[in-house]
């Protein structure tokens, strides 16, 4: 029996080059909504998402992220912030939301990646008007891949990272 969610997890790859096609508004909204619908600890939902589609704003955003200058060439990007006072659980919940958005994007044929990291994106928070009570955990650029994305994930052998019942016992 086919499992579309598993296939998305199995095939999802980081995309850093995008073609010039615009991302339809309903597609962008669905991707952000996947983050919004993600479960969070105690249902606190400590996040805020800023969808950026304006070309000049995307160029500015790309210039602010050391690990993701290609954001400037994406069709859209989502700034993912969390309430500082929620601490590590806020980071965890926002991270879960990022993964949900990346999987939803992949299901739409849209490439993405996670750029930046928490506590290093204060300039993004300020530039895009998020209150001081938030930290930006990452930025997710979105766009249709410039070229066909195929590849094989490089992973350690399954038996090295998965055990059954207790550490070191093989999962058959």
Give the structural class: alpha+beta
Could you give the order of the helices and strands? Answer: HHEHEHEHEH
Strand composition percent: 15-25%
Q: Segments where pLDDT lies below 50 for 5+ residues? A: none
Quickly describe the structure.
Helix content is 35%, strand content 15%. It has 172 residues and is α+β, with helices and mostly antiparallel strands.
Itemize the secondary structure elements and their pairings:
Blueprint: H1 4-11, H2 25-36, E1 47-52, H3 55-64, E2 76-83, H4 87-107, E3 111-112, H5 122-127, E4 134-143, H6 158-161
Antiparallel strand pairs: 1-2, 2-4, 3-4
Helix pairs in contact: 2-4
């Amino acid at each position: 029996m086919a499992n579309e969610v598993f296939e998305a997890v199995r095939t999802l790859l980081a995309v850093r080059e995008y073609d010039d096609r615009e991302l339809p508004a309903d597609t962008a909204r669905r991707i952000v909504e996947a983050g919004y619908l993600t479960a969070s600890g105690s249902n606190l939902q400590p996040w805020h998402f800023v969808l950026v589609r304006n070309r000049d704003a995307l160029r500015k955003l790309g210039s602010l992220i050391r690990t993701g200058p290609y954001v400037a060439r994406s069709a859209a990007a989502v700034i993912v912030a969390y309430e500082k006072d929620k601490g590590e659980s806020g980071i965890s919940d926002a991270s879960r939301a990022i993964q949900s958005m990346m999987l939803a994007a992949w299901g739409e044929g849209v490439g993405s990646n996670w750029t930046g990291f928490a506590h290093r994106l204060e300039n993004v928070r300020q530039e895009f008007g998020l209150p001081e009570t938030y930290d930006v955990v990452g930025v997710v650029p979105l766009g249709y891949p410039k070229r066909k994305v195929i590849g094989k994930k490089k992973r350690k052998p399954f038996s090295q990272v998965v055990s059954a019942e207790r550490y070191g016992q093989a999962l058959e």
